[in-house]
User: Which sequence fits this backbone?
């Protein structure tokens, strides 16, 4: 009950801040901005749902048997997730004591859409090895997908107890706090992640979206300008920069960012729709000259 009350209070404060920042504009424009901020709130502030730490997963050694870890992993890496589930089931039956097998079965099940099996297998991996950080962090992601922010928070906090210098852990803590409606606290988590790893582009992207949700549009622009400098080939980052620019009244800059996203990914429907909305608009009167390179340089982990 107290969490729901806190979340309600946080939501009132957040939207009060956004409303205050929009108070000087007309009703029609205000509704457009509120709709765009709401759209940002629906964005997924993360990379792929499953993070194995670098694409390839190593269990130390590959065990031969009826089903080898290497063959099952190959199915996972080539996105044949249903096949990977069956293969890792066979592997864990022959090697039930191997935490990595249950971990990979959990990830495969998750990517196949079975969050219940994913949860049970990741819990099994943790039961076998309580220090298995990847299982804890990916279990937290499963709980987020299931809408259980409290259970996700428990796994993240246990993970950070094991490794307090993990940018991934603090980035994930930010996501959990956002799920719980704790937006300023989530901002702090993302900034902490970036203090550990200044080139954690997903923590930077998430921070930018978090600032948009808090109505801090100018700061969001500087963060997202920086992330597009680091990763200019990512259409998601370009689209998110466009949204921050649009909310700040820089429609010409937003058009360029959305166009970059569409050029990079012609199937990026959000960017296509956003581009169509702003490409004929002129910048809001009275704004300073936009210099994204200079704005990117103003970004620091502490603002």
Assistant:
């Amino acid at each position: 009950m107290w969490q729901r009350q806190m979340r309600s209070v946080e939501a009132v404060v957040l939207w009060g801040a956004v409303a205050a920042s929009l108070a000087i504009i007309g009703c029609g424009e205000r509704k457009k901005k509120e709709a765009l901020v709401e759209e940002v709130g629906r964005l997924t502030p993360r990379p792929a749902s499953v993070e194995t730490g670098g694409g390839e997963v190593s269990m130390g050694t590959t065990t031969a048997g009826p089903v080898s870890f290497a063959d099952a992993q190959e199915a996972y890496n080539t996105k044949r997730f249903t096949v990977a589930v069956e293969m890792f089931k066979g592997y864990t039956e022959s090697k039930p004591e191997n935490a990595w097998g249950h971990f990979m079965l959990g990830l495969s099940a998750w990517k196949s859409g079975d969050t219940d099996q994913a949860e049970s297998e990741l819990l099994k991996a943790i039961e076998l090895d309580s220090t298995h950080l990847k299982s804890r962090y990916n279990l937290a992601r499963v709980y987020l997908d299931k809408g259980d922010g409290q259970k996700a928070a428990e796994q993240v906090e246990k993970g950070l107890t094991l490794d307090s210098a993990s940018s991934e852990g603090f980035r994930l803590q930010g996501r959990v706090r956002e799920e719980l409606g704790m937006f300023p606290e989530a901002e702090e988590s993302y900034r902490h992640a970036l203090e550990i790893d200044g080139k954690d582009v997903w923590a930077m992207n998430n921070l930018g979206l978090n600032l948009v949700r808090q109505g801090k549009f100018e700061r969001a622009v500087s963060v997202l300008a920086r992330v597009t400098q680091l990763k200019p080939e990512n259409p998601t980052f370009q689209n998110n920069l466009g949204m921050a620019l649009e909310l700040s009244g820089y429609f010409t800059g937003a058009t360029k960012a959305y166009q970059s996203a569409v050029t990079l990914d012609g199937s990026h429907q959000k960017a296509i729709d956003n581009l169509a909305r702003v490409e004929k608009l002129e910048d809001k009167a009275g704004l300073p000259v936009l210099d994204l390179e200079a704005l990117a340089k103003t970004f620091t982990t502490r603002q």
Q: What stands out?
A: Residues 1-26, 44-65 have pLDDT under 50 and may be disordered. The chain is about 70% helix and 0% strand. Residues 1-42+214-303 form a domain with the Serine Threonine Protein Phosphatase 5, Tetratricopeptide repeat fold (CATH 1.25.40.10). The two ends are 33 Å apart (CA to CA).
